[in-house]
Amino acid sequence: MLELVNLSKSYAGGRVKAVDNVSLKVRQGEIFGFLGPNGAGKTTTIKMIVGLLQPDEGTILIDGINLEKDPLAAKRKIGYVPDHPDVYEKLTGIEYLNFLGDVYQVPAEIRRERLEHYLEIFELKDAVKDLIGSYSHGMKQKLVLTGALLHDPPVWIMDEPMVGLDPRSAFLLKDLMAGHCAKGHTVFFSTHILEVAEKLCHRLAIINRGRIIACGTLAEIKEQHEKETLERIFLELTGGAPLP
Ligand SMILES: Nc1ncnc2c1ncn2[C@@H]1O[C@H](COP(=O)(O)OP(=O)(O)OP(=O)(O)O)[C@@H](O)[C@H]1O
């Protein structure tokens, strides 16, 4: 479970209000899509959820734990995939994964089993012995995904996870997301790919200029806005130049 209560964050001494009084509840067993145009406040929200940015106001609950009051306990519950897979280039893949396994205290036998599974499906079994600096963008992304899942986090947070993945890897990721929520875990991810959000998510929110402007199941959002497609709703709600 993930809950955001009246979350706000400004930059530039208060001149840029990136996130403006956002409240959301993502339930257990739910895949939640976080949509919004460039600069809407998605990454800022996600960085606050994972504890990389301090909110100006508001509360974040991770599986019922207040992130501000007990940051370590809350962060133990999170698996995080950032928008860019900037990982330690001077480590080998397996060194990086074992480092994460140590940080999250994943027992040896469970770690071995999970690593074998993810490295097999992501076709990283051989590459994991090489320096991360030699990896392609997609390989780094798959390594980060493996690392984020190593402790089987109850709350899996991803910022634009599909970027740079080939169709096979994107398919695998969608399958992993479905499997994760089927275990009763929570998946929260931002995306610009509306088709993915439409097909995969139980519920969605659209953020624009820091504010949530739509939230609910796809059917609820379509009904509220009396439009046939999420694309039309998204484009209409988020404005911009007139469309053909
Ligand atoms: N470090 C920063 N300093 C000042 N302003 C920032 C900073 N980071 C983000 N912003 C501003 O905050 C707003 C929200 O940015 P954010 O990166 O959260 O949006 P986003 O929805 O993730 O965008 P994108 O889809 O382009 O990644 C934007 O106006 C952005 O310019």
TrEMBL record:
Recorded superkingdom: Bacteria
EC number(s) from the headed UniProt entry: 3.6.3.25
Annotated ABC transporter domain residues: 2-234
Organism: Desulfofundulus kuznetsovii (strain DSM 6115 / VKM B-1805 / 17) (Desulfotomaculum kuznetsovii)
GO molecular function, one term: ATP binding
Name of the protein described by the UniProt record: Sulfate-transporting ATPase
Keyword Hydrolase: yes
Pfam families: ABC_tran
